[in-house]
Amino acid sequence: MGEPTSYLIIISYSNDHFWEIKNCFQTLAMFSKLLILLLLYSNSTLLGLAATEEDIGFTYNGFRSANLSLDGMAQFTPNGLLQLTNHTEQQTGHAFYPNPITFKNSSNTTTFSFSTTFVFAIIAQHPLGAGHGIVFVIAPTRVLPGGLASTYLGVFSKTNDGNSSNHIVAVELDVIENKKFNDTNNNHVGIDINGLNSKVAMPAGYYDPNNCPCLLQKLSLTSGQPMQVWVDYDGVDKFMNVTLAPVHVQKPNTPLLSFHYDLSTVINETMYIGFSSSTAAVPTNHYILGWSFKMNGQAQGLNLSRLPELPRIGPKQKSRVLRIGLPVICVGLVLAVVSGTAYYVRWKMKYAEVLEDWELAYGPHRFKYKDLYIATNGFQDTQLLGTGGFGRVYRGVLPTSKIEIAVKRVSHESRQGMKEFVAEIVSIGRLRHRNIVQLLGYCRRKGELLLVYDYMPNGSLDKFLYDQPEFTLNWSQRFRVIKGVASGLFYLHEEWEQVVVHRDIKASNVLLDGEFNGRLGDFGLARLYRHGTAPQTTCVVGTFGYLAPEHSRTGKATTSTDVYAFGAFLLEVVCGRRPIEPRAPAEDIILIDWVFGCWSGGDILRAVDVNLGTNYVQEEVEFVLKLGLLCSHSEPMARPTMRQVVQHLEGGISLPELSSFGITGTGLTFGHHEGFDEFAISYPSSIGKLFSQTSSSVAESLLSGGR
Question: Closest by alpha carbon to 201, among 161, 244, 150?
Answer without folding.
Answer: 244
